[in-house]
Amino acid sequence: MAQTTQGTGSSYNGSGEKSAGRLMKEVTEDLSTLVRKEVELAKQELSSSVSAKAKGAAIFALAAFLGFFVLIFLLLAIRDGFDNLWATWLADLATAGVLILISVVAILIGKKKLSTPISTELTKKSIKEDVEWAKTLGKR
What we know:
mainly alpha
């Protein structure tokens, strides 16, 4: 006397294998979970990249603040040195030229630091792998 699972609501057929409907439901659930996980990964990647950029900007701001005071003293020393060589007005112009040169260098360095793109390479790679996996499902 073999018992069948018909009428009992089970998703297995008489041979103990899953039915096509049950398999499709599982694949749909897996794809849904996969998409949610990909979105979570992208959010984590972006938040860590933005966090790193914010920390870098804060450190840059602190260095600029302290550098401002260092610059004041350096400019005073340069002006005093130039004042021994030239007239006061010419020493002031030469000091301003040094200040302009330092500003240009600081701008170029800051621009280079902030121009680095935010990376989402892990998400891109994972999505490509998921697409390849999904393509293999259709071939089975």
